[in-house]
Design goal:
Blueprint (H helix, E strand, L loop, with lengths): L6 E10 L20 E9 L3 H17 L6 H10 L11 H12 L3 E9 L2 H8 L3 H15 L6 E7 L7 H18 L9 E6 L5 H19 L3 H6 L3 E6 L1
Parallel strand pairs: 1-4, 3-6, 4-5
Antiparallel strand pairs: 1-2, 2-3
Helix pairs in contact: 1-3, 5-6
Length: 240
C-alpha cells in the first residue's frame, strides 16, 4: 500500500508596510501613515481546519445580524462585499474581544519575523528594493517550516503588489538555499505550494491578521495588552 503523503497547511500575513521613500526619493520614515516596523507572521493549526473555519464563519454571521454591531465599519464591509469578515485594524473593540477569545480557544502555533525599518540597512542589504525586504522575512518563515517531508501548502494573504507570484517564488528559492546551506542533509523531500489568497475568502487568514496586528502594536506603539493576551500561543519572534 502506498504511504499517504502528509499535508502541512501554513497561513501567512503581514503587518506594517515596506515604504522607505516617497516621490523624488524623499525619506518617509517617521512620517504620518508610514510604519516603523515591517513584520510577517506564519500560523500552523494543530487541529482540523474546517471546524475552525466554521467557528469563525458562525461568529461573522452573528456580528452581521446582531443589532448591537450595526455600526459604520461593519455595515461598510457588508455593503462592499456582501458579508462581514474580521480585520483587526477596522474592527471595534467589542468585536476584537470576541474574536481574540475565539482565537485563544484554538490549538495553533504562531511565529513572526520583524524588521525595524532602517534606511541605511535598506540601502545596503536590500538595494533600496522593497521586494527584497519582503522576500527576506518570507524566506525566514518558509525556511522554518520546511524541515519535514510531505506536501507544504503556504497560503499567503493578498496585500497589494508585494504578494506577486514572482516575489513568492524568489522567497521560496532563498528559503531552499538557506535550508541546504545550514543543513548538510535536509529531510525535506516533498511538494511545496505557494498560493496568494484574498482574506475575505479565507477566514483562517483573518485569524493570522489578528495575531500579526497584536504583535505589531507592541513594537510599533508599545501597546502590550493585545500581545500579552496572545503570548502563550507565540512560538517565536525573530528580529531580522
Amino acid at each position: 500500500m502506498e504511504k499517504e503523503i502528509s499535508k502541512y497547511h501554513h497561513f501567512l500575513d503581514e503587518a506594517g508596510d515596506t515604504t522607505f521613500f516617497g516621490k523624488g526619493g524623499i525619506p518617509m520614515l517617521g512620517k504620518e501613515g508610514v510604519s516603523k516596523y515591517f513584520s510577517m507572521g506564519i500560523c500552523h493549526f494543530n487541529e482540523p481546519l474546517q471546524p475552525i473555519r466554521n467557528k469563525i464563519i458562525a461568529l461573522e454571521k452573528r456580528i452581521a445580524t446582531d443589532p448591537y454591531f450595526k455600526v459604520g465599519s461593519v455595515q461598510k464591509k457588508i455593503a462592499q462585499t456582501g458579508k462581514f469578515y474580521f480585520h483587526a485594524t477596522d474592527d471595534i473593540p467589542e468585536i476584537r474581544m470576541l474574536f481574540l477569545d475565539l482565537i485563544m480557544s484554538v490549538d495553533f502555533e504562531f511565529e513572526m519575523a520583524i524588521s525595524e525599518k532602517d534606511i541605511e540597512k535598506f540601502i545596503k542589504k536590500h538595494n533600496r528594493n522593497e521586494r527584497e525586504l519582503y522576500t527576506d522575512l518570507l524566506a525566514h518563515l518558509l525556511h522554518s517550516k520546511m524541515d519535514k517531508d510531505g506536501k507544504h501548502i503556504f497560503l499567503v494573504s493578498q496585500r497589494g503588489n508585494t504578494t506577486r507570484q514572482a516575489t513568492l517564488e524568489m522567497a521560496l528559492s532563498k528559503a531552499i538555499n538557506i535550508l541546504y546551506t545550514n543543513t548538510p542533509a535536509p529531510v525535506t523531500n516533498g511538494e511545496i505550494i505557494l498560493d496568494v489568497v484574498n482574506q475575505k475568502n479565507e477566514p483562517l487568514l483573518n485569524f493570522v491578521d489578528y495575531l500579526c496586528w497584536a504583535v505589531q502594536r507592541k513594537y510599533e506603539r508599545g501597546e502590550e495588552r493585545f500581545y500579552e493576551f496572545i503570548k502563550p500561543k507565540i512560538k517565536g519572534i525573530t528580529i531580522l
